[in-house]
Amino acid sequence: MSQSSGDPNTYPSSSFANGMTGTCLCKSISVTINDPDLFTKRRGHLCHCGNCRKISGSFASSNLIIDDAKVTIIDHQGTLKKYVDKDTGSGTPVDRYFCSTCSTPIKSTSPRGVGKLSLKMGLFPRIPAPEAEAFSAHRHEWEAGIQDITSYKLGLGGEILKQGQL
Ligand SMILES: [Zn+2]
Ligand SMILES: [Zn+2]
Hints:
Blueprint: E1 20-23, E2 29-33, E3 45-47, H1 50-56, E4 61-67, E5 71-75, E6 80-85, E7 94-99, E8 105-109, E9 116-120, E10 132-134, E11 150-152, E12 160-162
Parallel strand pairs: 3-10, 10-11
Antiparallel strand pairs: 1-2, 2-5, 3-4, 4-9, 6-7, 7-8, 8-9, 11-12
Bound molecules: zinc ion (2 copies).
One zinc ion binds next to loops.
Protein backbone atom coordinates (compact mmCIF):
# COMPACT_ATOMS: atom_id res chain seq x y z
CA MET A 1 0.00 0.00 0.00
CA SER A 2 1.43 3.35 -1.03
CA GLN A 3 1.97 5.75 1.82
CA SER A 4 0.06 8.38 -0.11
CA SER A 5 -3.14 6.33 -0.04
CA GLY A 6 -3.73 8.09 3.27
CA ASP A 7 -6.00 5.53 4.89
CA PRO A 8 -7.20 7.33 8.06
CA ASN A 9 -7.89 3.96 9.67
CA THR A 10 -4.15 3.37 9.94
CA TYR A 11 -4.05 6.36 12.33
CA PRO A 12 -6.19 5.64 15.39
CA SER A 13 -7.58 8.81 16.93
CA SER A 14 -5.86 7.80 20.20
CA SER A 15 -2.51 8.51 18.51
CA PHE A 16 -3.49 12.21 18.36
CA ALA A 17 -4.12 12.66 22.08
CA ASN A 18 -1.46 15.40 22.13
CA GLY A 19 -2.32 16.96 18.79
CA MET A 20 -1.80 16.22 15.12
CA THR A 21 0.53 17.27 12.30
CA GLY A 22 -0.30 17.43 8.60
CA THR A 23 1.41 18.74 5.47
CA CYS A 24 0.63 20.08 2.02
CA LEU A 25 1.05 17.70 -0.89
CA CYS A 26 4.70 18.68 -1.58
CA LYS A 27 5.44 18.74 2.18
CA SER A 28 6.89 22.25 2.07
CA ILE A 29 4.35 23.40 4.66
CA SER A 30 3.60 21.52 7.86
CA VAL A 31 0.78 22.37 10.22
CA THR A 32 0.51 21.14 13.80
CA ILE A 33 -2.66 21.42 15.88
CA ASN A 34 -1.72 21.51 19.57
CA ASP A 35 -5.02 20.48 21.09
CA PRO A 36 -5.67 17.34 23.18
CA ASP A 37 -9.39 17.45 22.41
CA LEU A 38 -9.26 16.98 18.64
CA PHE A 39 -10.99 13.60 18.84
CA THR A 40 -12.70 13.69 22.25
CA LYS A 41 -15.78 15.34 20.70
CA ARG A 42 -17.07 16.44 17.32
CA ARG A 43 -14.89 19.20 15.86
CA GLY A 44 -14.96 21.39 12.78
CA HIS A 45 -17.47 21.96 10.04
CA LEU A 46 -18.16 21.29 6.40
CA CYS A 47 -18.94 24.25 4.15
CA HIS A 48 -20.95 23.99 0.95
CA CYS A 49 -20.60 27.65 -0.10
CA GLY A 50 -19.48 28.38 -3.65
CA ASN A 51 -16.10 29.81 -2.62
CA CYS A 52 -15.28 26.76 -0.48
CA ARG A 53 -16.25 24.47 -3.35
CA LYS A 54 -13.81 26.26 -5.65
CA ILE A 55 -10.85 26.33 -3.30
CA SER A 56 -11.36 22.75 -2.14
CA GLY A 57 -12.02 21.42 -5.63
CA SER A 58 -14.94 19.50 -4.21
CA PHE A 59 -18.64 19.67 -3.21
CA ALA A 60 -17.72 20.88 0.28
CA SER A 61 -14.66 21.94 2.23
CA SER A 62 -13.71 20.50 5.61
CA ASN A 63 -12.66 23.22 8.05
CA LEU A 64 -11.67 23.62 11.67
CA ILE A 65 -11.95 27.07 13.23
CA ILE A 66 -9.43 27.15 16.06
CA ASP A 67 -7.41 29.59 18.18
CA ASP A 68 -4.27 30.86 16.44
CA ALA A 69 -2.28 30.00 19.57
CA LYS A 70 -3.06 26.29 19.17
CA VAL A 71 -1.59 26.06 15.66
CA THR A 72 2.02 25.93 14.52
CA ILE A 73 2.67 26.43 10.81
CA ILE A 74 6.17 25.83 9.44
CA ASP A 75 6.81 27.08 5.91
CA HIS A 76 9.99 25.08 5.16
CA GLN A 77 10.51 26.28 1.56
CA GLY A 78 8.78 29.66 1.79
CA THR A 79 5.91 28.56 -0.43
CA LEU A 80 2.95 29.83 1.64
CA LYS A 81 1.02 32.38 -0.44
CA LYS A 82 -2.09 34.43 0.28
CA TYR A 83 -5.08 35.21 -1.90
CA VAL A 84 -7.37 37.97 -0.66
CA ASP A 85 -10.90 36.77 -1.43
CA LYS A 86 -13.08 39.88 -1.63
CA ASP A 87 -16.11 38.16 -3.16
CA THR A 88 -17.47 36.53 0.00
CA GLY A 89 -21.05 35.97 1.12
CA SER A 90 -20.58 38.16 4.18
CA GLY A 91 -18.88 40.94 2.23
CA THR A 92 -15.87 40.77 4.58
CA PRO A 93 -12.66 39.83 2.73
CA VAL A 94 -11.14 36.48 3.66
CA ASP A 95 -7.39 35.80 3.39
CA ARG A 96 -6.96 32.37 1.88
CA TYR A 97 -3.54 30.75 2.22
CA PHE A 98 -2.24 27.98 0.01
CA CYS A 99 1.03 26.33 -1.04
CA SER A 100 2.29 28.05 -4.18
CA THR A 101 4.21 24.94 -5.24
CA CYS A 102 1.53 22.24 -4.95
CA SER A 103 -1.65 24.41 -4.56
CA THR A 104 -2.88 22.69 -1.38
CA PRO A 105 -5.22 25.00 0.60
CA ILE A 106 -3.84 25.54 4.12
CA LYS A 107 -5.94 28.02 6.09
CA SER A 108 -8.07 31.12 5.93
CA THR A 109 -8.41 34.09 8.21
CA SER A 110 -10.99 36.85 8.48
CA PRO A 111 -11.25 40.08 10.48
CA ARG A 112 -14.56 38.58 11.73
CA GLY A 113 -12.60 35.99 13.71
CA VAL A 114 -9.84 37.82 15.58
CA GLY A 115 -7.28 35.40 17.06
CA LYS A 116 -8.77 32.51 15.11
CA LEU A 117 -7.99 30.76 11.88
CA SER A 118 -9.81 28.21 9.78
CA LEU A 119 -7.68 25.18 8.91
CA LYS A 120 -8.28 23.06 5.83
CA MET A 121 -8.58 19.58 7.29
CA GLY A 122 -7.57 17.71 4.14
CA LEU A 123 -3.97 18.40 5.25
CA PHE A 124 -4.22 15.94 8.10
CA PRO A 125 -3.96 12.14 8.40
CA ARG A 126 -7.38 11.94 10.05
CA ILE A 127 -10.36 14.33 10.17
CA PRO A 128 -12.55 14.55 13.30
CA ALA A 129 -16.28 13.97 12.84
CA PRO A 130 -17.63 17.45 12.05
CA GLU A 131 -20.09 19.10 14.42
CA ALA A 132 -21.79 21.32 11.87
CA GLU A 133 -22.23 22.13 8.23
CA ALA A 134 -22.59 25.59 6.73
CA PHE A 135 -24.54 26.53 3.60
CA SER A 136 -26.42 23.23 3.82
CA ALA A 137 -29.08 24.86 1.65
CA HIS A 138 -26.48 24.68 -1.14
CA ARG A 139 -25.87 20.97 -0.75
CA HIS A 140 -26.22 18.86 -3.89
CA GLU A 141 -29.26 16.59 -3.85
CA TRP A 142 -27.08 13.48 -4.32
CA GLU A 143 -25.00 14.12 -1.21
CA ALA A 144 -26.08 11.97 1.70
CA GLY A 145 -26.66 13.94 4.88
CA ILE A 146 -24.41 13.37 7.88
CA GLN A 147 -26.20 12.12 10.97
CA ASP A 148 -26.09 14.12 14.19
CA ILE A 149 -24.67 17.23 12.55
CA THR A 150 -26.04 20.74 13.06
CA SER A 151 -27.04 22.12 9.66
CA TYR A 152 -26.95 25.87 9.20
CA LYS A 153 -28.96 27.05 6.21
CA LEU A 154 -26.25 29.55 5.27
CA GLY A 155 -23.43 30.93 7.46
CA LEU A 156 -22.35 29.36 10.75
CA GLY A 157 -24.33 30.76 13.66
CA GLY A 158 -27.28 31.71 11.45
CA GLU A 159 -30.58 29.96 10.83
CA ILE A 160 -30.50 26.28 11.82
CA LEU A 161 -32.30 23.81 9.54
CA LYS A 162 -31.50 20.78 11.69
CA GLN A 163 -30.06 20.66 15.21
CA GLY A 164 -27.37 18.04 15.77
CA GLN A 165 -27.35 15.60 18.67
CA LEU A 166 -24.05 16.50 20.23
ZN1 LIG B 1 3.13 22.25 -1.05
ZN1 LIG C 1 -17.55 28.26 2.74
